[in-house]
Design a protein that fits this description.
Layout lengths: L1 E2 L9 H17 L8 H8 L3 H29 L1 H20 L4 H29 L3 H32 L4 H4 L1 H15 L4 E2 L7 H20 L7 H23 L8 H4 L1 H31 L4 H7 L1 H21 L1 H19 L8 H4 L1 H23 L7 H32 L9 H34 L4 H4 L15
Antiparallel strand pairs: 1-2
Helix pairs in contact: 1-5, 1-6, 1-8, 3-4, 3-5, 3-9, 3-18, 4-5, 4-8, 5-18, 6-12, 6-13, 6-14, 6-17, 9-10, 9-18, 12-17, 12-18, 12-19, 14-15, 14-17, 15-17, 15-19, 18-19
GO cellular component, one term: plasma membrane
GO molecular function: transmembrane transporter activity
Membrane topology: Multi-pass membrane protein
Length: about 500
């Protein structure tokens, strides 16, 4: 048996949703908010290029590697308790980073942010799962949560631009303290405790292997930016894969697994996790190159560059409520198949950018189309990833969903960087082209290649959804009061 919170016993559940969605926004936007601020931070702290890269990688590495362990801690120790500890630690780490005096301190702070985010994110999503167990309210709650999560990367670029231009890069980290205060107060007042009861022994060996495996995988892909054939790149990737295989073997044999394989072997949930990984790669990886194009090629300052990415977020916010109303009528499958294809079309259009092109003609229409497609995906995605999960496994399933997005983003960023580098090195300017113009043309060629690769990934996501996310809308969307009674189809 598990102690759960039904919506009938949670009168403040919609205010709790606001707090939990805010939490997800903070976790996601922190992956991108420092991107625009990095040039200023590098100059003030004297960071090397390697240190600058690790400001981004340290967060992704700690976050992605520890998510599954964080999810099980939430299940066993208490989701509200884990949420509050994660929120407090995240705030302290953010303040430390905002006051950093050198590169080592900043990188350490970003790593600590990732550690506490690995507690915070699965706890928040698990609390949402048990607060809205089923029915129309659950669909609405997950649509809101998924939309906020999906828009977080773009919001991070905008907020980073505002803070960098009008304040200082340090406020890109210090601003989290205000979010943390709201999250702590809201969490204490509005969120009810829940945890998995019964035999809750920790799977220590599983925790070690998956943490080292995911860490090695993320680190290996970060090294791939310097070349896929390098010995250290191949070594860390191989080590990561080997440790993850060993993790699966361990999980099949232990009585209390860190990640019950029933969570990922379900056909529908497995498909949702794969789509989530690809979407993460696009939202984190491709959007970074959009920021580069806006600033480096189009010459926009940090704030205008951040605002220039805002139309996509605005479209997501407009289309998401429409998709939410469509969800119970047509089911999640059409949205999961059509959404990635629409977003892919926008990215294909974006791949035709030129060094002398305009934002209004070459970028804005693409962002609108991408926003429409992404909204269609975000609305059902989190719901499908957690549908049919027993309350005992809510934290582990939530961690898997977050891990898919984070690991997908890290891998996507590395893959897109390699594609970008290859396109730039292979670019040949026309005879007589000025050196400065040729350099911008080379950059644009690289960005275009990254956008095209993102489009291919989203087409693959649509194919995965068509192949794996099957069943009637009644089967795919839980309507029962207890999520454990709404099993997903496995045919």
């Amino acid at each position: 048996m598990s102690r759960t919170v039904s919506s009938a016993r949670t009168p403040n559940r919609w205010w709790a949703l606001v707090v939990l969605a805010l939490t997800q926004l903070v976790v996601v936007l922190d992956g991108t908010i420092v991107n625009i601020a990095l040039p200023q931070a590098q100059e003030q702290l004297g960071l090397s290029d390697v240190e600058r890269q690790w400001v981004v990688t340290a967060y992704a590495l700690a976050f992605g590697a520890l998510l599954l362990l964080g999810g099980r801690i939430a299940d066993y120790w208490g989701r509200k308790r884990t949420y509050l500890v994660g929120m407090l630690g995240f705030g302290v780490a953010s303040a430390f980073g905002g006051l950093a005096q050198n590169g080592t301190e900043l990188i350490l702070a970003r790593g600590l942010q990732g550690v506490f985010a690995a507690l915070l994110a699965p706890a928040a999503l698990a609390l949402l799962t048990v607060t809205f167990p089923g029915g129309r309210e659950r669909n609405t709650a997950f649509a809101v949560f998924g939309t906020v999560a999906g828009a977080g990367a773009a919001v991070g670029l905008v907020l980073g631009g505002v803070l960098t231009e009008f304040a200082d890069w340090r406020w890109c980290l210090l601003v989290n303290v205000f979010f943390v205060i709201v999250g702590l107060i809201g969490g204490m007042l509005l969120v009810k405790e829940s945890k998995a009861e019964g035999d809750n022994r920790y799977d220590v060996l599983g925790a070690i292997t998956v943490t080292l495996g995911l860490g090695s995988l993320v680190y290996g892909f970060s090294l791939a930016e310097g070349g896929w054939g390098e010995l250290d790149t191949i070594g860390f990737l191989a080590l990561g894969v080997g440790l993850l295989v060993l993790f699966v073997v361990i999980e099949r044999r232990v009585a209390q697994p860190l990640l019950p394989l029933r969570i990922v072997t379900n056909r529908v949930r497995g498909g949702a996790f794969l789509v989530q990984a690809i979407v993460g790669s696009v939202m984190i990886g491709a959007m970074l190159y959009l920021a580069f194009h806006l600033q480096i090629v189009l010459g926009l300052d940090p704030l205008p560059a951040g605002l220039a990415s805002l139309p996509m977020t605005a479209v997501i916010m407009v289309v998401a409520p429409i998709a939410t109303k469509l969800l119970p009528a047509i089911g999640p499958r059409p949205l999961m198949i059509g959404g990635p294809l629409i977003a892919a079309a926008g990215l294909v259009y974006l791949s035709f950018i030129t060094a002398d092109g305009s934002y209004l003609v070459q970028v804005l229409p693409a962002l609108i189309v991408i926003g429409v497609g992404m909204a269609m995906v975000f609305v059902p995605l989190q719901n499908l990833a957690l549908s049919g999960v027993a309350p005992h496994d809510a934290g582990a399933a939530s961690a898997t969903a977050n891990s898919a997005m984070q690991i997908g983003g890290s891998i996507g960023l590395s893959v897109f960087t390699a594609i970008y580098a290859s396109a730039v090195s292979g670019f040949s300017p026309a005879a007589g082209t000025a050196a400065g113009v040729a350099q911008l043309q080379a950059f644009t060629s690289g960005y275009s290649a990254a956008f095209l690769a993102s489009a291919v990934g989203l087409v693959l996501a649509s194919i995965i959804a068509a192949a794996l996310i099957r069943g009637s809308k009644e089967e795919l969307l839980p309507q029962a009061a207890d999520p454990s009674s709404a099993a997903l189809p496995v045919h």
